Amino acid sequence: MHKNKYISIFLHALVWLVLFSMPYFLSYQEERDINRIIAHFWVPLVFYAMIFYLNYFLFIDKFLFTKKTVRFISVNLFFIALFLTLKELIGTNIFQELVKEDKRSDGKPPFEMFIYMQMLSYFAPLVFAVALKTTKRLAKTEAERKEATNVKLQSEIQHLRYQLQPHFFFNSLNNIYSLVDFSPEQAKSTIHSLSKLMRYLLYETNIELVPLSKEIDFMKKYLELMKLRISDKTQVISTFPSEVHAIKIAPLLFISLIENAFKHGVSASKESEIFIHMSIKDNLVIFKIVNNNYPKQISDKSGSGIGLQNLKKRLELLYPSKHTFKAEVVNGRFFVDLQIEI
């Protein structure tokens, strides 16, 4: 912020330096009359600067932006008239001979036209100040709007993240419940594994981006947990990239797809297969799942269907126009293809 302030001061100083220097340097072919330059150029420029900065720092905020338009116009007319009068007095008292020569010269416009043209020249810095201040105000308003949108976005993302955690926890508890009766030891081991997963959920995903390597470790541990409850009739094949240390991604984007594969792709009486594949290609993270499709029975109340809905919303918020998500059933198999540009 301080750097931008200094840049702004430097640019203002540079502009006025150029304006004050221009009359002097443009008269290089003529004999330089410093009195004429002061009377006709530098004195008006001082008043132009005063009109500009009075409006830029005071009148526009105090009158124009508060919709006191009449007062804004009145105060500017007063100062323009004051500066015109002062200019004439300075020219008459200090550069008397110069003014006399100007009055004797031929082709001068009438006095009314002269005053009119002088007033127009004073409106130029006024209009420029209004334009610059309005542009700055619009830019600030737009920045504040974007900031408010971003805060709202982050709040919504955080809400979705908190929504996902109990959903994941309840689904995992359902898995443990199914192990308690016929395999208490496995149920104990599963609880221990679940505690590790929940620790990651609670303490390591409260940031915007996490290393993809940690997400992969999380998914691998979850797969190990899920394999404890499935029978030999279900085959789970997963492949993950090994070199992903520099890649970061929003947390918990893939777990809902894996949960969904186990929820709808495993049958107690039929052969089942779940294929999970993640790869990196250029700037894309590609995640694919193929599993059998066994529709849930109406009496099955496990889960609430919130996982995939949550995922779609988070993808729209986190990666707008930077992701593709396809999910379809083909010949009794459920295909998922998620690609995220990073």
Automatic annotation (TrEMBL):
Pfam families: His_kinase. The chain crosses the membrane at residues 7-26, 38-60, 72-95, 115-132. GO terms for cellular component: membrane. Residues 156-233 form the Signal transduction histidine kinase internal region domain. SUPFAM superfamilies: ATPase domain of HSP90 chaperone/DNA topoisomerase II/histidine kinase. Residues 136-163 form a coiled coil. One of its GO terms (molecular function) is phosphorelay sensor kinase activity. InterPro entries: Bact_2-comp_sensor_kinase, HATPase_C_sf, Sig_transdc_His_kin_internal. Keywords: Coiled coil, Kinase, Membrane, Transferase, Transmembrane, Transmembrane helix. This is Histidine kinase. It comes from Formosa sediminum.
